[in-house]
């Protein structure tokens, strides 16, 4: 295309392919922005996972509750117009109910009223419950307990139980820690596993791939230096198309007791499919029969975008560390709301009890500012302390206002018994996928396990199916796989990510289906098809092949 920004040469593309996909994205954005300015068209960034939708009701409830909290504080006393007292817990539930009754049509009021009814149905002390929310939303104190406020923790545990499937520990059988998004959860977990010598450099970690690339990068950090055993999504449908599921032979790698950790994203990122039930059952069987000490990190952020979900944290709860983020489903990446959950009968605590005496002695010194009985500290308690270098354990966790918003998000989903919001979110994603496929002029194999929050398109698989083998040879010999990304950015102001950066096929393209409008995905599909046509034309010109 004439007058488009220059595409980097092959040597430069090779260098950029070594970066994390999220760092490569910055180069693509720069190229796409240059063309955007020239063509006066919007940049379509399909590399971002942040959704362009959000949940309204729990936010409205949050802001209404904040208004009540300030008014109740002012009513409790003041020293000047803006120097007011903190609210009193006595009778606060009745005061909130009266405040809500006076504003029946205000946004968020209905949800707050339903929340009071729900809390009463749990048998909770309503004054204590409301005061925690009111004091929390004002943000006047450190959170106590530091891991999570009492009622916020109970709500989070119930919410996880409602979405993770049968077998997930009951709310009194699980420890929950609120973190600054799933990213902080990842960092804290690896830190505590290594600090407590549950993992050591050189240990083997199995990673189900393709995978969210930071898991690969963290495992490779020099201070961790884990031996990566990749479990590839190598299964296909009968027609040869990727199913992005895992063959029994791949899963059997977990039978080796040298594999101490399994990292799993379910539904997967970027293929975005729910891991098949037989694979989940096989992992459980391997844990039961061959590798009972296996530690599993399951990152289940996309669990609410698919029906019939059942997490490994529900199937082998004692072996599992659950990571969950509220960012995607509720459109809340900026809130930084994540959860870590572990069973109170976790194998992690059993492993801590079996540590060598010398290691226990060193850990007792590490945690001496917390307790004179460090051996009694659970993994969950150590995780909280380690997140603040132990010395600041009393200030661990996310802020109280964040916890209140987290609890309101969770309550909203549990109160939505007809699944109206969930159905709408799933349909929104499905319609965008359909528009992309229309633009590409292709079909995907019908798959009830497909979540569709992302899609990984294997361009080379398409080439092998629709062109002679010589065309695939030409592409590999002439171009870097990232070239297609740079063409999309330079010619069509479209940003996509390289699937290879997630340990996917070299010529695969990873697109988010959450952050652009339906027509944009149709445009993206058409642009990818044009790039493919350009490659085919170049191949025909170079080989003298007649136009097909």
UniProtKB/TrEMBL annotation:
The keyword Iron does not apply. Residues 181-378 form the Aminotransferase class I/classII large domain. Keywords: Aminotransferase, Pyridoxal phosphate, Transferase. The keyword Transmembrane helix does not apply. SUPFAM superfamilies: PLP-dependent transferases (SSF53383). It comes from the Bacteria. Its EC number is 2.6.1.-. Its cofactor is pyridoxal 5'-phosphate. PROSITE patterns: AA_TRANSFER_CLASS_1. CDD domains: AAT_like (cd00609). Belongs to the class-I pyridoxal-phosphate-dependent aminotransferase family. This is Aminotransferase. It comes from Gordonia caeni. The gene is aspD.
């Amino acid at each position: 295309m004439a007058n488009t920004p220059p595409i980097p040469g092959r040597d430069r593309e090779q260098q950029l392919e070594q970066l994390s996909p999220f760092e490569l994205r910055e180069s693509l954005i720069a190229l796409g922005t240059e063309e955007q300015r020239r063509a006066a068209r919007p940049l379509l960034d399909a590399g971002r996972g942040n959704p362009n939708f959000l949940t309204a009701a729990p936010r409205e409830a949050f802001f209404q509750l904040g208004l009540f909290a300030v008014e109740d504080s002012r009513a409790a006393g003041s020293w000047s117009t803006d120097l007011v007292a903190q609210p009193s817990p006595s009778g606060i539930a009745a005061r909130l109910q009266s405040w809500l009754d006076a504003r029946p049509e205000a946004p968020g009021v209905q949800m707050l009223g339903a929340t009071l009814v729900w809390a009463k149905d749990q048998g909770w002390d309503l004054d204590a419950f409301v005061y925690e929310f009111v004091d929390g939303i004002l943000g006047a104190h450190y959170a106590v307990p530091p891991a999570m406020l009492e009622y916020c923790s109970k709500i989070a545990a119930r919410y996880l139980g409602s979405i993770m499937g049968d077998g997930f520990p009951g709310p009194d059988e699980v420890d929950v820690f609120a973190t600054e998004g799933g990213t902080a959860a990842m960092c804290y977990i690896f830190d505590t596993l290594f600090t407590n010598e549950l993992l050591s450099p050189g240990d083997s970690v199995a990673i189900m791939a393709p995978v969210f690339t930071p898991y690969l990068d963290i495992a490779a950090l020099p201070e961790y230096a884990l031996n990566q055993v990749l479990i590839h999504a190598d299964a296909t449908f009968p027609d040869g198309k990727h199913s992005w599921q895992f063959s029994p032979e791949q899963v059997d790698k977990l039978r080796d007791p040298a594999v101490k950790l399994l990292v799993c994203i379910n539904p997967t990122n970027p293929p975005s499919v729910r891991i098949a039930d037989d694979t989940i059952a096989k992992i459980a069987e391997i844990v039961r029969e061959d590798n009972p000490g296996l530690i599993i990190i399951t990152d289940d952020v996309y669990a609410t975008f698919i029906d019939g979900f059942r997490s490994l944290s529900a199937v082998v709860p004692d072996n599992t560390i659950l990571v969950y983020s509220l960012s995607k489903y509720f459109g809340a990446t900026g809130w930084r709301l994540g959860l870590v959950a572990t069973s109170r009968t976790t194998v992690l605590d059993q492993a801590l009890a079996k540590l060598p005496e010398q290691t226990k002695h060193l850990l007792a010194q590490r945690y001496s500012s917390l307790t004179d009985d460090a051996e009694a500290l659970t993994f969950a308690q150590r995780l909280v302390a380690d997140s603040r270098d132990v010395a600041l354990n009393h200030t661990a966790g996310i802020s109280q206002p964040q916890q209140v918003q987290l609890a309101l998000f969770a309550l909203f989903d549990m109160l939505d018994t007809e699944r109206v919001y969930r159905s709408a979110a799933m349909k929104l994603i499905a319609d965008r996928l359909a528009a992309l496929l229309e633009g590409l002029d292709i079909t995907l194999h019908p798959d009830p396990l497909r979540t569709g929050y992302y899609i990984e398109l294997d361009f080379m698989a398409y080439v092998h199916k629709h062109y002679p083998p010589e065309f695939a040879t030409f592409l590999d010999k002439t171009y870097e796989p990232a070239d297609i990304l740079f063409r999309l950015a330079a010619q069509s102001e479209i940003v996509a990510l390289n699937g290879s950066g997630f340990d996917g096929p070299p010529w695969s393209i990873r697109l988010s289906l959450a952050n652009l409008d339906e027509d944009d995905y149709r445009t993206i599909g058409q642009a990818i098809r044009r790039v493919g046509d350009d490659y085919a034309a170049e191949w025909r010109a170079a080989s003298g092949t007649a136009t097909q």
